[in-house]
Each structure stands twice: as C-alpha cells, then as structure tokens.
Specification:
- The structure holds 2 protein chains of 2 kinds.
- By secondary structure, chain A is an alpha+beta fold.
- Chain A is built from 42 helices and 33 strands.
- In chain A, the strands form 6 sheets. A 9-stranded mixed β-sheet of chain A has the order 14-33-32-31-15-27-30-29-28, with helices on both faces. A 9-stranded antiparallel β-sheet of chain A has the order 17-16-26-25-24-23-22-21-20, sandwiched between helices.
- Chain B has 2 domains: 64 residues; 242 residues, no CATH class.
- Chain B is 37% helix and 14% strand.
- Chain B is built from 12 helices and 10 strands.
- In chain B, helix 2 packs antiparallel against helix 11.
- The radius of gyration of chain B is 34 Å and the shape is extended.
- Chain B starts with a helix and ends with a helix.
- The chains are: A alpha+beta, B alpha+beta.
- The interface between A and B is large, with 136 and 124 residues.
C-alpha cells in the first residue's frame, strides 16, 4: 500500500520534473536569481509528509488496516452475520470488528494530524529572499522557488538544497552540520567559488546584476554527490565553473560558525536530497509472527473442514428425514429450510457454521499482541539497567514487533569501532624513522593479562617483556616522580602517549630530531580537521574531524609543539613552540589540494607549500596501500615501520603510515590542471577520474613513520561477550581493521579464548603474499592472480573445514590426531613450497609466515593435546622444530622467542594434562575482506564458508567494507535457513546496511552520530546493555509472547470446539446452545485481561539468574517455547478441556432429570449459562497450572475476569425483561439456588485441568526445563542483584 | 498493525525526549518496583512432596462430596413408562398391523380413530411428596435453528412482534390477516397429550389423584416474561379439537383464548427450548406420598404424533433430593476425580521414594548433561 502511494507520488514527481529538464531527464537548468515562478514546472518548496488528505483518509486508512489478511476474514464473517440464517446476532459480531478498526483509524488520524502540523510549521518558516531589486524580503519556506537567491544566518536550517554563492566566512567558506542527514556531528566545510565571493548582499547593484545559468543533474537521492556547471554572466563575458558537493548546501542541515551566506535554490520540496532519501526502513516481521500466520492458516483450514463437515451432515440428514419433522412445517418452509433442496441447506449451513466456529480465528489476538508489545517496549525503555548515566540516554525501541526476536538470537554481527570499543581515540604509540616510541599497556594487553592469556599472536616476545613489548631497551621503567604511562601529566582527550624521550619538548635532543620534527609537522598538516575554540587557549581547543583518529593525531601534533589553530580556505595556521620557554612562532602553510579519504582509497593526502617554499605531498594511510606506493630508491624505514606497525596492531592499536613526497613545481602544475579538469566533470565519471589523478601523484612516497592510536574497549565488553558466548550465541566481528588488530581485540573482549583454535584465512598473510610476489616475478595476468588467490582461499577453507569437522565429529572413524597431522602436513608442505621459492625479498615475509604458522600449530596442538595427550599430538610436537629449523636457516632472528613459545606451550600442555577440559575444542575463524570477496562471489565457496562458520564459536571478518558487512549478514541469514536468527549491532553509518539486513538490528547511540540508531530496531548506548537486552528482556519477551500466543489459541480453540459440539446436538442446524452475548464477551471480557498481564509481566528467572546462567538463553534459540510440539500439546489440551467443559454440564443439565429440588429440568438456556460458567473458569484457572509467576496483578486479573462473568449474568439478568429476554433473572432464580451448579464448578475445573497438571508435574520432576532447575536451586538463596 | 505500534512508540519516545531536553532534566528512568519489573511475586514451585500433598488432599476432599452427592441421587425414586408404542399398537388390527412408522403416523392423523389408552405403573418404593410428573420426548429437535427462531419474544412480553420475528414465525405468523398470538412453530407444536391418574390406594377419594399443574414454570417466566394481559388470539385453529372436525392431524395444541399467556404454564415450559433432542418437561406435581404396592393408572389421550420422525414418548414420576432428580453422574465423577487424585498422589510418592531427585540439581541442566555426554562419548578415544 505504502509502496503504491510512493510509486504514485514518484510518478507525479517525475512528471513535474520532466518539464524542467529540457527534455533530458538527468539534467536541469536553473536560472539563478530569476525565480521560475512555475514557468519551468519545478515543484514548489512546500513539503507534505502526510499520508492522507481529508477526503482520502477513510478509504486509504482503512486500506492500510486491511493489509492484514485476518481482517478480511473478520469482515467476511461480520458480513455473513447479516444474513438471515446467521447463528449470532449481527451486532455481537460487528461490535468487536468496528472497535478494532476504529482503534486503527484513530491512530492513523492522530499520526497524520501530527505530521500535518509538523509540515505546516516547516512550510511557514521565514526565509530572506532577494526580491530582484537588491533588497531582501521575508517569505515563507513554501513560497520559495527554484532559482531564488536567499540569505541564511548562522544556526539556521537550509529550506531547500542551495548552491553556495558567497559567505561572510574567510575565502567564501562556511561550515555546515549534517546531523539530521547522516548523524555525523562534525562540521563540514562548504566553499563558494572565488568568482562569486563579491556578491555578498552589501552591494545592491551586484545583487541585481547577478545572472548565472546553472546546469546540473536532476534530483536524486545521493547525499554525497553533486555535479554541475555554473555559467556565470560577467560584464566582460561568460565564465564557466565546475560545481561539486562542496558548493551544495542540503536541506535539513544547518549553517554553523559562519555569519551568513547567500545561496541559490537548486532543488525544492520533495526534490531535495534529504526528502528523496526519506525511505522507510524495510519492514521486518518476527519469526514468531510468521509462525503465527501459519497457525492462523492451519486454524482456517480446520475451520473450513469443520464447516464443510457440518454442512454435509446437515444436508444429508435433512434430505433423509427432514420432511418427517412435521413440527417445523418442512413443506411450507422458507427458502433456507427446505429438505427437498439439500444443496441449498448445505450451502447455508456451511456459511452458518463458518460464523458459528469463527472463534477459532481470534480478532482479539492482534489487538492484545500489539498492546503487549508496546508495554514490553516501555519496560525496556524504562529499564535502569539499560540507562547510561554518562550520556544520559535510555534504550530506545523502534520495532516492538521484533521484541521476541531478541530472545532467540544465535548469531551476533558486531561492528568493532564504536561498538565494542568507545571510538574515543587516543594517540598511544608512534614510530619515527624506525624507532618506536611510547610506553604503557593497552587495554588489550591488560585484558589478556587479566584473563591469564598469553598475548595471542606475539609468541616472538618473551613473556616477561610483555609490558614493554616494544623493545624499548633504552628506557628505564620507573621514574622517581611516579610519572609514567599510568600517571601521565600530558594526558588529554585524544592523547594518552607517554615517553619521556619525546614529551615536554625533550624530543629536540633526540639524535634524529629533524625527522621527528617533520613527523609531527606532517601530523599537524595532513588532515581535514577544523579547529573549534579560541586559538589562544591550546588546552580548550577541540577539533572537528572526519574521524576521531584524525583528531587524535592533530592533538598529538599540538602536544609536540605544532599547534594547529586556524584553518583558512587555502591556508593552515600552525603555532610552533618546540621548547616550553621558546616564544611561539606562527607559520602559515599554503594548502593547495586535499585528496580526500575514502574507504576505497584507504589514504588521504594534502599538497602543501611550506613557509620555506618547499612543495610537499603529505600522505597518511593504511600500511598496505602506502607501502605499495613507496619510492624504490628512497623508501624510508619501511621494514622497521612495518614491523612496528604490526606490533602496534597486535596491541590492538589502529595504525597509519605517514609518508611524504617532494613535488617538482612544474610537475605539480601540470598535474593540478588535469586534476581540476577531472573535478569539474559531471556524474560518475568525475569520481573515477579524480581518483585516477590522485593515484598518479600519490606515487614514489617516502615513509617517515607510523602512528598507533588506541581505541579503548567499552566498559564491560569482555564480560558481556563472554556471557553472550556462553549463552550459545556465535559472535562475529566485522571490522575494517587489519587482521592482527582484530585478533587482539578478539582476545581482549574474550571472543577468542584460551584453548580456542584460530583458523586464519587471509590474503594479506605471508602465504598469500607469496602469490603476489610470484605474480610480480612472473608477471601474471590479472585474471591469473585472481584465479590463484581464489584457489588459495578455497584451499584454506577446505583445510579449515576438515579441521573443524574433525574436532567435533569423527565421521570416518579416523582419530582426531591423524586428522591433525594431515592438516599439519598440508601446512608444512605449503610452507616448504613457499620456502623453495624463497628469495631475498621473501625472507622478511617468510619469518612472519612461519611465525603465524607456528602460532596456529602451537595453539592447535595445545587444544588437541588437552583431549588427546598421547599419540598423534606428539607428532605435531616433534614436527615443530623442523619447521623452525628451516625458518632459522632463512632468517636467524627470533629463535629464542620461538623456544620461549615452546616452553610456554609445553607448560600449557602439562597443565591441561592435569585437568581435562569439560568442553570440546572451540574454533575461531579469522577472515579478511579480500578473501571474503572471493567467497561471496561463488556459491560453492559460500557453502563451504558457512559450514566452517557453523562450527566456529567466533568469526572475525577484517578489512570488510560496509557493503560486505551487509552481504555477509544476508549470506548467513539466507544460507543457514530459518532456524538462524541474526542480530547486527553497530554504531556508524557504515553499519546501516548490516543492521537492515539482519533479522534484528541494534544501533549504538555513540559518538559517530545517530544514523545506525535511526535505522535500527532497537537502540542502546553501550554494548554491554546488549547483554541485558538479550538475556533478560529478549528472553522474557520471547517467553511472554510465546506463552501468550499458545494460551490464546488454547482458549479460543476451547470456544471453537464447544460451538462444534453444540452444533452436533442441534442437528448441525447452526444453533448455539449458549447466548450470543456470552459468546461475544468471551474473548473480549471474560478471558481478556489475564493474558495481557501475562504477556506484559510474566517472568521465569530473575535478571541476576539470567546473568549467572547465560546458557538458559539457549532455550530461545532452540525455539523451546513456541514450536509445533507445543502448539499440538495446547491444541490437545484445548480439545480435552473443551470436552470436559461441554459434556460435564451436559450430563448434569441433560434435561433428563431435575437439577434442583424444585423439580425443574434444564433447558438450553440453563445448560448454556452453566456451561459458560465453567468455560470462563477453566481457561482463567489454567493460568495457575501453566504459568509460574504471579504478582498481585496476576491474581487481580484472573479473579476479576472470573468475577466479571458472574457480574455480567447478574446484571444482564437484572435488566428489564425486554432486554434480557430468556436470560432474565437467569442467575438469581435459576442457577444460584441450585446445589448442583456450585458442585459442578470445582468438579469441572479439576477434571479439565488435572491431566495437564499431572503431566506438568511429572515433567518438572523427571525432565525439568533448565529454568525450572535454576528457580528451584535459587528459591532458598536468591542471587543478589548485581 | 505491528509497524503501527512501532510508529506509535517512536512518537511517544521522541516526544518524551524532546520534553526532557527542554526541561533539562536527566532522562534517568524513575525507579519503581513496577517499572523495573521487580514486583514481589509468588513463584509456586512444585516440589514432589508438595504435589503429593496437594493431590492426596484434593482426593480426600472429593471423595466425601462424591459419596454425599451420590447418596442424594440414589435416594431419588424414579418411575418411567414409555407409552407411545403401546398406546398405538393397542389399535392394531389384522388389516392395519401398524408395523411401519408411516402406518402409525397415518393412524394418528385419522380424526375418526380413538387414541386414548390406559397404562398402569406400580410404585415399588416409598415416594415422598412432592412427586413430579414429566413427559419425555425422544429424537425431537427443539434446538433446531429453524424451530428455535420461530417465535417472538416481544410478543410474549405483550409487545407487537417485529417484522423479523413475524418472518421467522412463518408459516404460523398470520391467519386471515391477523397476527397469531403467540406466533411461530414453537407454540404451534405444543405437546398436547393429557394424563389422568387414578389409583387403587385406599387413602384417596374416588380413587383419583390430584395433579397440581401450577407453579411448574420459572417464577420470573410466568410473572414477568409471559405477559398476563396477552391472550391467545386466532391461534392454530386447525388444532382446535372442539370446533374443527379434523383437528390435530399431526400434532400441536390449541390455546384457550380466555386464559392469558402467563397462566398457560404448559406453554411456558414448552417454550423453554431443550438443549438436547431427548428431553423431559415438567407436567405436574402429585402432592401426596405414595407407598409401595400402590398402582397408578394413567388414562392417556395419545394425541401427539411422534411416530413420523421415530420419536418416543414416556411418562416419568420422580421425587427429588437436595441435588435434584436421579442423576448419579455428579456423585460418580467426584468419586472418580477424587480416586484419581489419590492414585496419582501415591504414584508420585512411590516414584519419589524410589528415585528421588534433589530440587535444583545442576546435573540436570541441559548444557551440563550435554558436556557430560560428550565427555563420555569422547573418552574411548582418549584411551
């Protein structure tokens, strides 16, 4: 429905747009300062987000309601009830339907009115528009037309997409905040062309004479692209300027830190980029919801079958003996009752029965479910356990329809930065000219130490040097003042670096001070950050940067005396104060070009003219891309830097390489013109060409050093991850980081635990690099390289699969140790293959490779030995020195470290010999984006990949792009079928795809803005709250919704079966033996309240127990509370209960003996009322046997419901006889004085509930559910609330 | 609808957030036991001994109730005599042996044939008054939808019947342009057999027993629901035995025009539709004790034709107890439920003693069991 409306709107929009695009759909021409006033057919700036207009409201809103198929059914039933032969009075069927529909309509109306109010407020906002005569007049937003010249002041929101003409800021610059668009809080620079700077609103004639023609692309939804040409009419002719995103100001963003600007309206109203972006998130439905649909269909089929059977029996019976029933005058009957036309009787009987048994499909269920889900969501929002006092944020629920999914998650896809970590970057280490600086322990190390783990990938470092793994031999560990890494006087936001060689201006005395100086100078210049604050006060200065890493680097430069305090359009202002006592010197660096960062380029560069006239390209980026582009002759300290960066990576730091290149003036000019040309292109071409030009100049770099920035783990992450893993949830981390960093973060947040085997599939490791090397040597074609790489990935995956399967099951009867050996063999042969190809350049890589190999093997052997201390494991052990021996032959260094590693391994071995582990070996798969690309492209590899993943406890995907994140999630969700439920959690815009692809998306309200949170179904402010969201709320919600649905079906089925039974005794003529009103209040009043209370409040275990026993969560993954078996059980239970409820009163009120001393026998009315009494009692009291959690609210709800029945028949019977008819004084005169009536009630309740109760008791004794054991265990000594 | 709930919630949360931002207050949720879901709750735990206790207690409570109820039901004396076949076969002749239902039906429809018969019932046990007289019909679908709707509740209450009512009353809605009171087939098919009782007992005058036919309907029915100002009019003339030559061809009764509806208790009882195809209706009351050895003679006017649809007719005399008439079901079910409870209680007790399981035994946890199982299955390979 929504899509139809959207389609219609879009069509309308494109029609109106076509008129203004001069026949070419992709281009539009705007005459600046000459508003079109509708002449060109551009749409106005008035915006409407309303879904309905006053005349379309009722039909459209009803249509929205009727998207649910069940509503069609209900309406059909209501329609049938109008027929003269219907069993119930129409009003008792129509009333609930009208109530439900009205509720839905009211809500739609309320929302639409609010939308309309919001629109009106926006459309009537004032805006200053140029009137054509040099003056600005105030208009309303909605009156704005394309081509209008407008003036905006600081802090105002742009009314439409504007082309920036001039700004009061320096150099035509202005800053915009795009929080509402992409959630990013940093300011972005927009810059006008120099040619239009002077149209500043002060000179009236300039304003009047400003004429330009803007040719640009048609309206589209891409926020980050824009291309066009501005043909500027100058007194002395025409000038053409290339336009791009820096000149476009988007609606919904605001002007910041700038006095005022002038702009020309380019796109208006619904054609603005932000409006075109407003697509609703994909609608997700929970699995329980989907199976509910299936149950409804089942009920529908059952209903049809029952109705058909009834109709058939009625027709056959009437045909055979209908004419004999003289008391119904069959010969002179109405058209519906004519035994001579059994077919007509059958058809009428069929529809009649449909309405009669219609209780099987309950309309009240949908209403109840919605109420319950909203209430559950409110509980989540209100939960103090998910409130973050630091950011003053509560949890948010956007899709209450997915509440119960939270209780069944079995795979979590997590982003790393900002999700597991704080995205609060601190400058922590650096390496300059091959010397590493920085002390102190990263959190990764701390976590490893706390968990008593050897730092996973660093066996080359002796264990005792763990705290200073940087080989900083020259530093004395202790300082007399107590000043050190833990007590750092220089620490500030973004800076947590300690090294007394550098700090406090001491670096000037270092022997390569010049290099250090250049390094920090580069950090101060090579970025796109914007300073905010007073230039005179360095300590309060904040930087708005694209990423927190970048800001951290600028802060670091500041700490070392290169204080970047002001940014001009083409200049960077740096205050240099190298020694504490030196007077600061201000330098101006001319900023010539910025080659921006993109996730594809993985680097950014600036071209700067230094004050001394040197022309330099300064570049920083990922090591993989920078090292590829170094100058072969003067590459700088590549090897040392690479080694240090790898170590940084192992410590969990984010690393960047800093490099430069001196540019030749002529070469630069030549390049610059071509670059400008590329940038003035329109459309997709532009991006491509710009990137090509950038690639051209970013060659032949010289490495200066590298940086290591720490991204601290969020509070409670390791514990949360640990418990989630214990809860049987597989956790995948999808990160853009490199393999080493990811592995260490994996250790830190206990994704990779001791005794776990790591399976690494990476095209960046040494083995894979060998392919590259060989390719370079033998100059393979692109295809061949791809082919080989794919082969490599496939082989790796097969090996991993074999290993993983071998560890779990043993299908071919070979012992695990044999399997292990064969795997080691394959590894060894792979190694010797690469060795045989060994050449000088290979040596370095090889050492890495064998280290990695040794690591894998040693961990593997530890894991293996723990279960299998003799036999094959030994072979592995004997083999290792051989591998190592070869390695030593090639590269002598690191031998002792290896030995150390062995010692540690054997220590671990003896430890594990003593106590056998309780669980089988777990595996962790580490895979990189490059390999993933190959896997995602091929079906067979996908399957193999999935099979490996199923058997791994953790999966780490490194170096993945946002698109790949979403692809992986989709792959797992689709590939592993319905029984897998994926949850994606992330905080940034790059996680949106993943969040939307997963069954449940959780957003972190973090520093990177709110885009992920906006796209998500649930939003929390800390990763650790995910634990509570899943283990406590998710579990409860799943339990509540499941119980609720099952119970609901139980109770409606009872009613359905009973209407069938009563039809059996009424000749299948469709006459219910009970009063219409009793029946229509059954679901809506007599049994409505308790089920809602259960859906909202039911608990089994306390949050403390849920945290103590995370394994309890697995019941949700196994679908233990809502499955076919349980549905059948409840169905059987309802069949039994309904039989008892119907036949016990029937036998007592049979009409064959008096039911009271007065001698009267019961008629249908008396029997119906008595039967209904127990019909209300049994389902209500069933709650006491089926559920195990009762607050006073439960008791009140149950007993109020039961009481409501008695109250109802008393009140109904007390009404004047013209209302109540045959039910007049039913209770007071007929039922209440009868002893049998009261004796029957406990009897029926006992008989109806006894078997269920016995079986439940039996099960809880001998096959107790996990939660029952936990409850029983902690009944006496409850776990205190954490 | 599901997404609708989301929209609603989103609005609510947004609103709240904006308000809090404006008032600069902390967004910290307020602590209440309810909002934090910490309400004190009863979590009944079914310990084995508790279950055993509950079952045996319930059982012990049920059995006396069952015994008392059954005793009450057993104390009721009930005499039953099915007369439909006897009364018609009496008139069987060689030419008309009345072997088929059609033949019987045909006989019943013959106005010229006498249809009265006499049956006698011996009282075998002492019957304390009041003794209720019922007639019982079998295979008679009073609860057929077509039949049930063929009456006007409004008319009984003294109001003009609605159009829908009249339509439902067809073909017994009008006669000669005037509305029949009471209309419809329920009233039209009123049971019209009559019973006169005489006895051999010495203590009655002239050997006849007085049968009290008043107060056999619900008080509210005869005083309020059936109006005392409404008199039957132009009803079922064909059923009028005194004026119409071939009346009562098939059944049904004619109502006395001079008696208001509320006085016609036979009709009131009849118009309470029976729930099942076999049912009894109260006919009258004998307000004298009957002693064993008494023979009751019923002189029956066998007018009502149940032969066409294989129905049955029977006459019942029954006393009542505090529980009502003779119905052992309630007592027996109490005994059965009570017995079952005690049995189950003992089974549980036995199983618990033989194979006790400490509550909250961790070794029963699924993940503990699983790891134990793997440990066992992997142990042979470690050998």
């Amino acid at each position: 429905m929504a899509s139809i409306m959207k389609f219609w709107k879009r069509k309308k929009r494109s029609n109106s747009g076509a008129a203004g695009t001069n026949g070419d759909e992709d281009l539009r021409t705007v005459h600046c300062n000459q508003p079109d006033h509708g002449a060109f057919g551009f749409s106005g700036n008035s915006v409407s987000t309303r879904k309905y207009s006053w005349w379309s409201f009722v039909p459209l809103a009803l249509f929205v309601q009727y998207r649910r198929a069940a509503y069609w059914y209900f309406t059909a039933m209501a329609g049938l009830s109008l027929a003269p032969f219907a069993p119930y009075s129409p009003i008792s069927v129509w009333l609930p339907l009208i109530f439900v529909l009205l509720l839905g309509l009211l809500r739609e109306a309320w929302e639409d009115v609010r939308r309309a109010r919001g629109d009106r407020e926006l459309n009537n906002r004032p805006i200053e528009v140029h009137d054509g005569n040099g003056h600005f007049v105030e208009k309303k937003w909605k009156d704005l037309r394309v081509g209008d010249l407008v003036r905006m002041k600081d802090g105002e929101y742009f009314p439409a997409d504007l082309l920036l003409i001039s700004s009061t800021g320096p150099g035509g610059m202005c800053y915009v905040e795009t929080m509402n668009l992409d959630g990013e809080t940093n300011l972005k620079v927009r810059q006008a062309f120099e040619a239009t700077w002077d149209i500043d609103g002060k000179d009236e004639s300039k304003l009047r004479d400003f004429r330009a023609e803007l040719l640009c692309e048609g309206p589209n939804a891409s926020l980050y692209t824009f291309s066009g040409r501005l043909k500027l009419q100058l007194p002395n002719g025409q000038m053409e300027l290339p336009l791009g995103p820096p000149q476009l100001l988007l609606r919904d963003s605001s002007l910041q830190n700038t006095g005022s600007i002038l702009g020309v309206v380019v796109y208006t109203g619904h054609e603005t980029k932000s409006m075109m972006n407003a697509t609703p998130p994909p609608t997700k439905r929970s699995r329980v919801d989907k199976s509910l649909d299936r149950v409804i269909w089942l009920m529908f089929v059952l209903l049809l079958a029952m109705a058909l059977l009834s109709a058939l029996l009625l027709a056959l019976r009437s045909k055979a003996q209908g004419t004999n029933l003289w008391y119904m005058r069959p010969t002179v009957s109405n058209p519906y009752y004519n035994p001579n036309q059994p077919a007509v009787m059958g058809i009428v009987g069929f529809f009649n029965a449909l309405v009669l048994y219609g209780y099987l499909i309950p309309i009240a269920l949908y209403v109840s479910l919605e109420i319950v889900r909203v209430a559950q969501a409110l509980f989540m929002v209100q939960d103090l356990g998910m409130y973050d006092p630091d950011s003053d944020r509560r949890a948010r629920v956007k899709s209450p329809g997915l509440n119960e999914e939270l209780g069944q998650v079995d795979t979590i896809f997590s982003d790393k930065t900002g999700t597991l970590t704080r995205n609060q970057m601190d400058f922590f280490r650096c390496t300059i000219q091959g010397v590493a600086f920085g002390k102190g322990m990263t959190e990764v190390e701390r976590a490893a130490q706390k968990l008593g783990l050897p730092m996973g990938p660093s066996p080359r470092d002796p264990p005792d040097s763990r705290t200073q793994s940087m080989n900083l031999g020259t530093i004395e560990a202790d300082n007399p003042d107590g000043i050190g890494p833990d007590n750092n006087p220089y620490k500030e936001k973004g800076f947590n670096f300690y090294d007394e060689r550098l700090l406090g201006g001491k670096w000037v005395e270092e022997k390569n001070a010049e290099a250090i100086r250049f390094f920090f100078e580069t950090l101060a210049l090579c970025h796109t950050a914007i300073p905010e604050g007073s230039p005179e006060d360095p300590s309060s200065m904040r930087y708005r940067a694209e990423s927190p890493d970048e800001a951290a680097l600028v802060v670091a430069a500041k700490q070392f005396g290169f204080y970047f305090y002001k940014k001009g359009p083409t200049a960077l202002y740096v205050r240099e104060s190298l020694r504490p006592n030196d007077p600061p010197k201000d330098h101006v660096y001319q900023l010539l070009d910025v080659l921006e960062f993109s996730s594809h380029r993985k680097r950014m560069s600036v071209i700067v003219r230094f004050p001394d006239g040197r022309l330099l390209l300064l570049c920083k980026g990922a090591d993989s891309v920078i090292f590829q582009r170094v100058d072969k002759r003067r590459s700088g300290p590549v090897a040392e830097t690479a080694r240090h960066l790898r170590q940084f990576g192992e410590l969990g730091l984010r690393t960047l390489v800093v490099a430069y290149k001196e540019l030749d003036e002529g070469e630069y000019q030549n390049w610059h013109t071509r670059y400008t040309e590329a940038r003035s292109m329109i459309g997709k071409e532009r991006e491509l060409r710009t990137e090509e030009r950038a690639e051209e100049i970013e060659q032949g770099l010289t490495v200066v050093g590298g940086t290591g920035v720490e991204d601290k783990l969020q509070v409670g992450v390791p514990e949360a991850v640990d418990r989630l893993a214990k809860a049987g949830i597989n956790i995948w981390v999808l990160t853009g980081d490199k393999v080493e960093t990811a592995i260490n973060i994996g250790y830190a947040c206990s994704l990779i635990r001791q005794g776990m085997d790591k399976l690494i599939v990476s095209l960046e490791g040494a083995e894979a690099r060998a392919i590259d090397e060989r390719a370079a040597r033998e100059s393979w074609s692109r295809d061949k390289i791809t082919e080989k790489q794919k082969e490599f990935v496939a082989k790796k995956l097969s090996d991993a699969l074999e290993l993983v399967l071998g560890g779990h099951v043993n299908p071919r009867g070979t012992s695990t140790s044999e399997r292990q050996t064969s795997f080691s063999d394959s590894m060894q042969s792979a190694l010797s293959r690469s060795l045989s190809r060994g050449s000088g350049t290979l040596a370095r890589n090889l050492s890495n490779s064998s280290a990695a190999l040794g690591r894998t093997l040693s961990t593997t052997s530890t894991g293996r030995h723990s279960r299998n201390p003799s036999g094959g494991g030994k072979t592995v052990f004997e083999m290792l020195p051989l591998v190592d021996g070869q390695k030593v032959g090639v590269n002598g260094e690191g031998l002792d470290q290896r030995e150390n590693a062995y010692n540690r391994d054997s220590a671990a071995l003896t430890r594990s010999r003593r106590k056998p582990p309780a669980e089988p070996t777990e595996y962790a798969l580490v895979i990189d984006g490059h390999s993933l690309a190959y896997i995602l492209a091929e079906k067979e590899l996908q399957e193999r990949f999935l099979e490996v993943c199923i058997n791994c406890s953790s999966v780490l995907c490194c170096r993945v792009s946002p698109r790949q994140k979403a692809q992986v999630v989709t792959l797992v969700r689709k590939g592993l079928g319905l029984n897998r439920l994926c949850l994606a959690i992330g905080d940034g815009a790059n996680d949106v795809g993943m969040i939307q692809a997963a069954n449940v998306g959780v957003g972190i309200l973090g520093v990177e803005g709110a885009q992920a949170a906006m796209a998500a179904d649930f939003a929390i402010s800390q990763f650790r709250f995910l634990e509570r969201l899943l283990l406590v709320h998710g579990r409860w919600c799943y339990r509540r919704i499941s119980l609720m649905i099952l119970y609901f079906f139980y109770k409606v089925c009872i009613m359905g079966w009973i209407s069938f039974y009563s039809n059996i005794f009424a000749y299948f003529s469709g006459n219910p033996l009970y009063n219409d009103w009793y029946a229509s209040f059954y679901n809506t009043v007599f049994t409505a309240l308790p089920i809602i209370v259960i859906g909202v409040l039911d608990q089994d275990i306390t949050p403390a127990e849920a945290f103590r026993y995370p394994q309890l969560y697995q019941s949700g993954q196994r679908g233990e509370l809502f499955n076919k078996r349980l549905i059948l059980w409840w169905l059987a239970n309802s069949l039994y209960a309904s039989a008892v409820i119907f036949f016990f009163p029937l036998l007592i009120y049979s009409g064959l003996s008096a039911f009271r001393p007065g001698g009267q026998v019961a008629a249908a009315q008396e029997f119906g009322a008595a039967m209904f009494t127990v019909l209300v009692l049994v389902p209500n009291l069933q709650i006491y046997s089926a559920f195990h959690y009762f607050t006073w609210i439960h008791h009140v709800a149950i007993w109020a419901s039961i009481l409501s029945w008695y109250l109802f028949i008393i009140v109904y019977g007390a009404l004047p006889v013209s209302f109540s008819g045959i039910a007049y004084k039913e209770f007071v005169e007929v039922l209440a004085p009868s002893a049998a009536y009261w004796l029957m009630q406990p009897l029926v309740v006992m008989a109806a509930l006894l078997p269920d109760f016995v079986l439940r008791g039996f099960k809880s004794f001998y096959f107790p559910s996990d939660y029952q054991i936990v409850i029983a265990k902690h009944k006496k000594d409850p776990i205190p609330e954490a | 609808m599901a997404t609708g709930g989301g929209d609603f919630l989103r609005k609510l949360q947004k609103e709240e957030e904006i308000q809090q931002r404006l008032s600069k207050e902390s967004r910290r949720p307020k602590y209440t036991k309810f909002s934090q879901q910490e309400l004190s709750a009863c979590k009944p735990l079914l310990t084995p001994m508790c279950i055993v206790f509950v079952y045996i207690a319930i059982g012990l409570a049920c059995i006396p109730v069952g015994i008392i109820t059954l005793q009450a039901s057993l104390s009721v004396v009930e005499l039953k005599f099915r007369y439909d076949t006897i009364c018609v076969m009496k008139y069987a002749t060689a030419t008309n042996p009345m072997l088929t239902d059609e033949a019987k039906s045909e006989f019943m429809q013959d106005y010229n044939k006498r249809k009265n018969c006499t049956i006698s019932i011996d009282v075998t046990k002492y019957m304390k008054q009041p003794i209720y007289i019922y007639y019982q019909l079998g295979n008679y679908f009073q609860n057929h939808r077509r039949y049930v709707k063929s009456m006007s509740e409004r008319q009984l209450q003294g109001l003009p019947p609605s159009k829908v009512d009249l339509n439902n009353c067809k073909p017994q809605d009008m006669v000669g342009g005037r509305v029949i009171v009471p209309c419809g087939m329920v009233a039209w098919s009123l049971f019209n057999d009559t019973f006169d009782i005489s006895t051999n007992a010495f203590y009655t005058e002239e050997g006849t027993l007085f049968v009290n036919k008043t107060a056999i309907s619900w008080k509210s029915d005869r005083e309020e629901r059936f109006n005392n100002t409404i008199f039957p009019s132009s009803n079922f003339v064909n059923n009028n035995r005194t004026t119409v030559v071939n009346a009562s061809q098939i059944g049904g009764s004619y109502l006395n025009n001079s008696q208001p509806l509320s006085m016609d208790e036979n009709l009131i009882v009849w118009m309470r539709i029976a729930a099942l195809p076999t049912f009894r209706k109260l006919y009258g009351r004998i307000e004298t004790d009957l002693h064993p050895g008494t023979t009751l003679t019923f002189n029956i006017n066998n007018f009502y034709n149940t032969y066409g649809f294989r129905g049955s007719k029977a006459l019942i005399l029954s006393t009542t107890s505090w529980i009502g008439g003779k119905n052992h079901f309630l007592g027996f079910s109490y005994l059965i439920v009570g017995g079952a409870c005690i049995l189950i209680g003992f089974i549980f007790l036995f199983m618990h003693c033989k194979n006790p399981r400490p509550l909250g035994d961790k070794s029963y946890l699924s993940w503990v069991k699983k790891s134990v199982a793997t440990a066992i299955s992997t142990s042979p390979t470690t050998m």
